[in-house]
Amino acid sequence: MTRIAVLGAGKVGEALLAGLLSSGRSADDLMFTERYPERAAQLTEQYGVSSVGVAEAAKRADVLVVAVKPQDIDPLLVELNELITTRTLVVSMCAGLPTQLYERCLPAGVPVVRVMPNTPMLVGEAMSAVSAGTHATEEHLTLVEEMLGSVGKVVKLPEAQQDAVTALSGSGPAYFFYLVEAMIDAGILLGLPRAVAEQLIIQSAVGASTMLARTGQHPVTLREAVTSPGGTTINAIRELEKHGVRAALLAAIEAARDRSVELGKAHEED
């Protein structure tokens, strides 16, 4: 059984551990690093997975999943450079960081796979995109796909598209939460109790997303089915278009893409 170490047990790291366990992996084949002892103890008690130091993780694991904040990557790579060999697969879940950064800072030939997941991993409904670095093989990609399949769906794509993925699906849940928040506020403005407004909107969001996933119909087709001539919905859509909601969303996603590019450039070699 492949031994996996998650370096950085924040929300995404914890979600991956939980997903791997639920898919049938043994806790004995998993480990994690965590800088805060209290949280490390809590995770070990909850999942039965051992908390280890970076050196022990590098020594024991076949796969190192890097799930630290991008700003914490440099000292971690310096440490790992002295600890791992080409037998270790490195999986990066750090937004904006290219595989070239890892390949430059780690021993020559170390295989690296870049992943952009999102927070629905916490409920087993992640959308993850994976891209191979220079030394990663199809076997490495298959292993990562299987690993991430325990917490959602996975697509393979060229690394050049990862900044777009980061902006679209990586940050995507926040856009939906923002819209739901606004719609709940609208319900309160119209006189509904907050609890009622929340129930109405959240279930509507669940139902709409389920229709998209199960019917395979284009969003336009599903929207038009709700939009009767001269009805309430078309009046609402007119106001959304009048206020430039579509254009604002496009601009927001482009801004997120640009920030992802900036994060990668910040670690380019001088």
TrEMBL record:
Entry's Gene Ontology BP terms: L-proline biosynthetic process
Catalytic activity: L-proline + NAD(+) = (S)-1-pyrroline-5-carboxylate + NADH + 2 H(+); L-proline + NADP(+) = (S)-1-pyrroline-5-carboxylate + NADPH + 2 H(+)
EC number of the protein: 1.5.1.2
Keyword Oxidoreductase attached: yes
Annotated positions binding NADP(+): 67-70
Keywords: Amino-acid biosynthesis, Cytoplasm, NADP, Oxidoreductase, Proline biosynthesis
PROSITE patterns, alphabetized: P5CR
EC category: oxidoreductase
Superkingdom: Bacteria
Keyword Repeat tagged: no
Coiled-coil positions: none
Domain Pyrroline-5-carboxylate reductase catalytic N-terminal: 3-96
Pathway given in the UniProt record: Amino-acid biosynthesis; L-proline biosynthesis; L-proline from L-glutamate 5-semialdehyde: step 1/1
One of the record's GO molecular function terms: pyrroline-5-carboxylate reductase activity
Record's GO cellular component terms: cytoplasm
Compartments reported by the entry: Cytoplasm
InterPro entries reported in the protein's UniProt record: 6-PGluconate_DH-like_C_sf, NAD(P)-bd_dom_sf, P5C_Rdtase_cat_N, P5CR-like_CS, P5CR_dimer, Pyrroline-COOH_reductase
Residue ranges occupied by any Pyrroline-5-carboxylate reductase dimerisation domain in the UniProt entry: 159-263
SUPFAM superfamilies reported in the protein's UniProt record: 6-phosphogluconate dehydrogenase C-terminal domain-like, NAD(P)-binding Rossmann-fold domains
Family in the record: Belongs to the pyrroline-5-carboxylate reductase family.
Role, per record: Catalyzes the reduction of 1-pyrroline-5-carboxylate (PCA) to L-proline.
HAMAP family xref list: P5C_reductase (MF_01925)
The protein's name in its UniProt record: Pyrroline-5-carboxylate reductase
Species name: Tamaricihabitans halophyticus
GN (gene name): proC
